[in-house]
Amino acid sequence: MRVLEVLDTFYPNIDGPINVMVNIAKILNEGKLAEVELLVPNFPKHNVDIEGIKIHRCTSIPAPEGNRAAMPYANNKVKNLIKNGNFDIIHVHSPFTLGKASLTYAKKYNIPSMLTIHTRYKTEFERILRSKSLQRFMNKYINKVINLSDYVLSVSNGAAKQVIEDCDYKKDVYVIRNGTDINPEPISADKIMKCKKEYDLKDEFVFLFVGRLVENKNIQFTLQVLKELKEAGYNNFKFVIVGSGEYLDTLKEIISEYNLTDNVIFTGKIMDRQKLATIYACADLFMFPSSADTCGIVAIEAAANSLPSMMLEDTCASEVIVKGINGFALPNNPTAWKNKLIEVLNDRNQLQDIRDAAKKTVYVSWKTIVKQLYDFYKQAISNKQNMTINSQNDVTSNKTKRTKKLKSKKTKSKSLKSRKNQSEI
Which one has a higher pLDDT value, 220 or 124? Predict the structure, then answer.
């Protein structure tokens, strides 16, 4: 099986769909289940190679937030890759220029295709675009791209429902969740001690956030919660923020305004997965109040290290949370969060059972998820082959019918001609 995974961004950026695509490729290639190649925008002077994975790079131009906008129609590279690459399936992870072109060529050359929706684009457009008409235009664009794909996948039940509602999508949306490549084995005490020393963590209660520093991650909500917690007399805590992004300066202003400067630690972006795992192991509670995430990979990573999460209730990300059993899902109210944190801080022992349950029920490895996806690939390929055979049979049947009809007409014509000749005699 030959598979092409397509995404409109790539390293050196840090993003959930990059994590997804790279893990699919690594696991299928290393397990010799398939030959997986990647198609991503070119990042001149910043291209990142991955051992064991062939990466095709599309012509691109600079885009906001350190991204590159792919230009798949600037030349025939993408077209020829899909036309001549002998791919059995095209799996697209973003609906923009490169994703749309890949789905278009897949349809043209009769290759099975699928599109995984990792983001609620309607909400993103409302956040980024001021113009209502531009928002409507982009939503129509997404709807068009989605319908180019043979199959649409999502990473949570809530996200699947959003696709149907936001995009007026009439067919089934298949759910295949995210996983993590972080090893669930316990981190050694020595590594934890070194990590705490690096970030000057002592006996404080450690809250953690990992991800892009953008407004819709709702980190400002956590800061409001911690402000109220501190005002309630609970000051023995640290909030470690791992990541980088455009919202950093705004967060620093909020932290200063809320008198949290001594409580917050920024680590910057961390690419080393082992180091990131160690930071998870140093924390006591993962704070993830995002309502925009369709399935928070970071919460799964946290669970791999027995770190439970606190999330907003009734969100896609919190689908995996059983309240008070394997994590916390609370209303969109800072005071409710503050009260729950006071309860936890007054009885830290209750966290141990929740830690254990998080590891057992929230954590899932990429190997498990990719096996599900591989089975889906095989079914999609089989379905396409059957459709092709049926289509060929229909063509053959129609040809046979036309031939019989033509023969019948000729026979009738000869019979009439013969009767005419006999009449003349």
Answer: 220
Cβ-count burial of 197 within 10 angstroms (0-12 exposed, 13-18 middle, 19+ buried)?
exposed
The span from the CA of 344 to the CA of 122, in Å, is 36
**Tokens linked to 156:** 């949570």
In 140-189, beta strands by DSSP E = 151-154, 173-175
375 touches 316 (CB < 8 A): no
Between CA 411 and CA 149 the distance in angstroms is: 48
Q: Is the pLDDT of residue 394 over 80?
A: no
What is the distance between the alpha carbons of residues 237 and 54, in angstroms, rounded to a whole number? Answer: 45
The structure's pTM equals: 0.85
17 pLDDT above the threshold of 90:
yes
Q: Are 275 and 94 in contact (CB under 8 A)?
A: no
Task: Show contacts of 193-198: CB within 8 Å, 24+ apart.
Answer: 195/275, 195/278, 195/279, 195/281, 195/282, 196/282
Tell me which residue of 100, 107, 102, 91 sits closest to 152, measured CA to CA. Answer: 91
Say yes or no to pLDDT of 413 above 70: no
One-letter amino acid at 397 equals S
Q: For residues 282 and 280, give the distance between their C-alpha atoms in angstroms, rounded to a whole number.
A: 5
Distance in angstroms (rounded) separating the CA atoms of residues 91 and 358? 31
CB proximity list for 289: less than 8 A, separation 6 or greater = 218, 219, 221, 222, 310, 311, 312, 332, 337
- Cα angle 268, 271, 273 (rounded to 5 degrees) comes to 120
pLDDT in tens, 366-380: 999 999 999 999 999
